[in-house]
Amino acid sequence: MEKNFSNILTISSYNDGINRVFEDYCNGIKANCENYYYIDYIELYLSNGKRAFEAYIENIVVEKKIDAVFFIWWSCDLTFDIKFLERLSKKTALVMNFFDTEYYFEAVDRYYAQVADLVILPDSLARYRYEHLNINAHTSFALFDGDYYKKQPEIVKDIDVSFIGNLKNADRADYVKYLKDNGINIQTYGTGSDNGFASFEQMVSIFNRSKINLNFTTLATSDNYIVPLPTINQRIKQSKGRPLEIALCGGFILSQYAAGIEQMFDIGEEFDVFYSKEEMLEKIRYYLDKEKRREEMAGKSYDKALDRYEVKAGFRIIFNKLKKLPQKQAFPLYVDAIFLRSYNSSRFFYIARHFLSGRFSLALEELGVVCKYRKISLSMAYFFAIKGIVFALLKKPELYDKLKKVKSLIGMKVKY
Q1: Phi first, then psi: what are they for 50, rounded to 5°?
Q2: What is the CATH number of the domain that holds 270?
Q3: Are residues 187 and 280 in the same domain?
Q4: In this predicted model, what pLDDT tens digit does every residue of 176-186 receive, in sequence order?
């Protein structure tokens, strides 16, 4: 018998306009339930502290008769005590979305996923890792709101090839240079690019204006991540959300290959892929000369994106799967030193935020958690504390500007 999921609580935190992904997911959930409730978990945790935060969520679940809680949280977020989530899972169904699980499966995601009724993933191969642990998983790929990602049929395709993203990641700049050296007119946008940052509206326009939209799948260097990652992970190529954004705008996609990406779109029919610089150049030359072929493939990927990857349609599929899930199997909760060290070290993000906001009792509460679990990594604790300080300063622009000036003066003295 199908279960009813009418009353839904979504726990997320929007990304201050940097990208729409959190808001888009919440829109998709809201469109597929009768009664929708939302909590900004970072703001709630900062204002209430751990105990009151957990009590607030539990009270809403009981009072509103919540059928499922959706966690649309930041990658590698360690805000939540896993024991609290285990307790919550006995009151309602839990659905967890893990962005960037290729990075964080071992250190974080698999531990939280133990208490989930369903895990949502943007990668086709990662699903099997969860299913191997007897955790229900669904590959949605990335989902985006079709009310904002749109075709602009009247627009002129005046850009031969475009790339939007961080050119400082991996070897992307080398690929772009190779194209330029071989006479390809490529326009780049984003960090390290020729044209600089593109707003959301500009990005949608670029997808529409481009004859070929490039996508790279190599991972960022692991040096930038707080939770230690094995260097061998640099071999992984990741199924990005960019092709789906492009498809919803009716653009033609040429992507670097990533394992499982053929389950997103049909290669050679709805988009195309390359494995090397040489093949990338060859296919760009081919498709620039084949306008009709490009448009046919872009039309097919657009239709599939609307049917599966537009956020309201994507969550309709997820809700249908959730209704038909078998009863969750009973397993003991496995929490070892790997996870506890990361969770405990992450408390210093909130210790820094509470302290700089003058909420000293809440900072002490976090220190109590550290003492309770004991396991800690000093390097991770340091990075989380710095992250907390930076986020706190960003909320106080005047203080942030003063500190930047001080840093600049110190830098000048050191230089001379």
Answers
A1: -60, -55
A2: 3.40.50.2000
A3: yes
A4: 999 999 999 99
Span 280-298, average pLDDT? 98
Bridge pairing between strands 186-189 and 159-164 = parallel
- Expressed as residue numbers, the domain containing 252 is 159-309
Query: How far is residue 137's CA from residue 96's CA, in Å, rounded to a whole number?
Result: 9
Residue 279 lies in a domain: yes
Are 357 and 304 contained in the same domain?
no
Residue pair 118/138 in contact (Cβ under 8 Å)? The answer is: yes
Number of neighbours of residue 285 by Cβ within 10 angstroms: 13
Q: What is residue 1's predicted lDDT score, i.e. its pLDDT?
A: 56
As a residue count, the chain comes to: 416
**pLDDT tens-digit map of 74-89:** 998 999 999 999 999 9
More confidently predicted of 299 and 394: 299
Where does 133-181 have alpha helices with state H? 172-181
Q: Give the full edge-to-edge strand order of the sheet including 93-97.
A: 35-40, 7-12, 68-72, 93-97, 118-121, 137-139
22-36 pLDDT tens trace: 999 999 999 999 999
328 in a domain, yes or no?
A: no
pLDDT at 9: 98
Total structural domains within the chain: 3
Cβ-Cβ contacts under 8 Å for 147 (sequence gap 6 or more): 27
HSE-up (13 A, CA, CB side) for residue 101: 28
Say how far apart CA 301 and CA 212 lie, in whole Å. 14
Token pair recorded at residue 186 = 């490529």
Q: State residue 38 phi and psi, 5-degree precision.
A: -135, 140
Question: Could you tell me where the beta strands, DSSP code E, fall in 252-323?
Answer: 253-256, 272-274
191 token code pair: 């960090």
Dihedral of alpha carbons 164, 210, 121, 23, sign: positive
Do 391 and 407 lie in one domain? The reply is yes
Residues 168 and 281 in one domain: yes
Q: How many CB atoms lie within 10 A of CB 228?
A: 15
For residues 305 and 319, membership in a common domain is answered with no
Average pLDDT rounded to a whole number, residues 189-217: 96
CB 345 within 8 A of CB 377: yes
Q: Number of C-alpha atoms within 13 angstroms, CB side, residue 160?
A: 14
Give the pairing type, strands 118-121 and 35-40.
Answer: unpaired
Question: Strand 159-164 to strand 210-215: parallel, antiparallel, or no bridges (unpaired)?
Answer: parallel
Tell me if residue 66 falls in helix, strand or coil.
coil
Give the DSSP H or E segment for 160. Answer: strand 159-164
Last residue of a domain, one of 291, 323, 355: 323
